[in-house]
Design brief:
binds zinc ion, binds guanine, 7-stranded mixed β-sheet, 9-stranded parallel β-sheet, about 450 residues, 16 strands, alpha/beta
Length: about 450
């Protein structure tokens, strides 16, 4: 590409100023977002793709107030607003990662095991450290910064069993007006010392956190059952009662990720029809349920998810890395199941939603389905926002939305730059966006804004 804006080392862009004291800011660039689900249609037949090249995004007091062609007059009262010139770059809604573990940055990329061994060998020992409030606070700060450095502006997050670990995440996200969904992890069995709670204490901790945080600013509480094996039937019952009592809270857990895990759940809960049924019969499945993985579900399970409007958080890099299986995304959607995209770090190997999309493409390709960039990008933005019931505030770039945005370079290294030039010359936008999605990662990110404020920018982003 000849546009200097695509090469951070030669960038001549004006400085990254952030909002003025009035809270106003104007971004120039090529705006890409979605207005509906493109589905698994071929790229040229996909609906809902909104491409607004060379536009200005007007931000005031944390929200988008207008998106208009750059050449259109701004009006006198905007003349003093700072302008960030990202011409030749992509401006997109920030990504929404619907399943990720804060403490697992400590164990990302650990060698050699499948789910159950991986939990015992790496994950549980690392999570024990979060009993310490300082470790929780530092871990939350490190984790949220890492999300922002990947263009992710909202997430559904697992902390640890310790109340303080959820508290730390809420505090750090709230300070930045970031939409965060989390809650202390429930686990009262099959976990080592220092990582188990009990039903009564866990309930008290959850109620405290709900009262303190749920609905405060952009914070949302999730009843967080780790997975069926680490909760007693009594704890699952209590968790279900919390979901019923505190309508509006979310529920997050894992389901049907790995075949050994599925067998173990069948042994532990012989009366349940299926793994999903363990949750459903206690009232844990509702429209705000986010279930990671769901690789080994059957048609009846899918019908249950569809009837409740619950979502599967498909976690491609994790499914590959832990050898868990190939999620049938198209089949799940044919069954009416809502699907979002997630990194599931540290089972997943990258917080980059782009890298996870590239993995998702390969998982679908192995099953004969072609995942377009439109479908993948929709899913990590408006799709996730809709499934979480938050599309009024995020996932697209429209007046009234919070200004949760990411600015991207098309390419930052020679192979991708060459590929981008070829794709650009073809005049086929999907070809170009697909190559960006497949070759891009956090190095392509120029900056991230949450509620109109810059929370991350690259050193070289002028
Ligand atoms: N199942 C139960 N806990 C976990 C976890 O931490 N990561 C993944 N990938 N699966 C789980
Ligand atoms: Zn997980």
């Amino acid at each position: 590409m000849t546009d200097p804006g695509t090469d951070p080392t030669t960038s001549t862009q004006p400085s990254w100023q952030g909002p003025s004291s009035s809270g106003r800011l104007v971004l120039w660039g090529d705006v890409l977002d979605f207005t509906e689900d493109p589905g698994f249609a071929a790229p040229h037949e996909a609906a809902g793709v909104r491409w607004r090249p060379d536009h200005a995004v007007l931000i005031d007091d944390g929200r988008v107030v207008a998106v208009q062609p750059r050449v259109q007059s701004l009006g006198d009262d905007w003349l003093a607003a700072p302008v960030e010139d990202h011409r030749g770059r992509l401006i997109m809604p920030g990504f929404i990662d619907t399943h990720v573990h804060c403490p697992q940055l400590d164990v990302i990329a650990s060698f050699g095991t499948a789910l159950l061994d991986w939990l015992n060998t790496y994950t549980f020992p690392a999570e024990r450290r979060y009993a310490d409030p300082t470790a929780s606070r530092e871990g939350a700060q490190r984790f949220l910064r890492a999300l922002w450095a990947n263009g992710t502006t909202s997430a559904v997050v697992f902390p640890t069993v310790h109340k303080v670990s959820a508290q730390a995440l809420f505090e750090e996200a709230h300070a930045q007006h970031m939409r965060l969904v989390t809650g202390k992890v429930l686990m009262d069995r099959h976990a080592p010392d220092g990582l188990r709670d009990d039903v009564e204490q866990a309930e008290r901790d959850c109620v405290d956190l709900i009262e303190q945080w749920h609905g405060k600013g952009r914070q949302s509480f999730a009843v967080t059952v780790r997975f069926a094996p680490t909760s007693t039937p009594a704890q699952l019952k209590m968790a279900g009662q919390l979901c019923q009592t505190y309508a509006g809270t979310y529920m997050q857990t894992h389901v049907a990720e790995n075949r050994d895990e599925v067998r173990w759940v069948a042994e532990l809960f012989p009366d349940a029809r299926s793994y999903l049924d363990v949750y459903d019969r206690d009232g844990l499945i509702g429209a705000r349920a986010v279930l990671a993985h769901g690789i080994w579900l059957d048609e009846r399970d899918r019908a249950v998810l569809r009837e409740h409007g619950a979502q599967i958080a498909h976690s491609p890099s994790s499914n590959l890395f832990l050898g868990s299986g190939l999620f049938d995304w198209a089949g799940a959607e044919r069954g009416g199941v809502n699907v979002s995209l997630a990194s599931d770090v540290g089972g997943g190997t990258s917080l980059s939603m782009l890298r996870n999309m590239a993995d998702a493409y390969k998982i679908q390709a192995m099953q004969g389905t072609r995942l377009t960039a439109w479908k993948a990008l929709f899913t990590a933005t408006l799709g996730a926002a809709r499934h979480l019931g938050l599309a009024h505030e995020m996932g697209h770039v429209d007046p009234g939305c919070m200004a949760d945005l990411a600015v991207w370079d098309w390419a930052v290294e020679p192979v991708a730059s060459h590929r981008d030039e070829v794709a650009k010359a073809s005049g086929n936008l999907h070809e170009r966006v697909f190559a960006w999605m497949t070759l891009g990662d956090e190095r392509n990110l120029v900056g991230t804004l949450i509620a109109g404020k810059t929370v991350y920018k690259t050193r070289t982003a002028a």
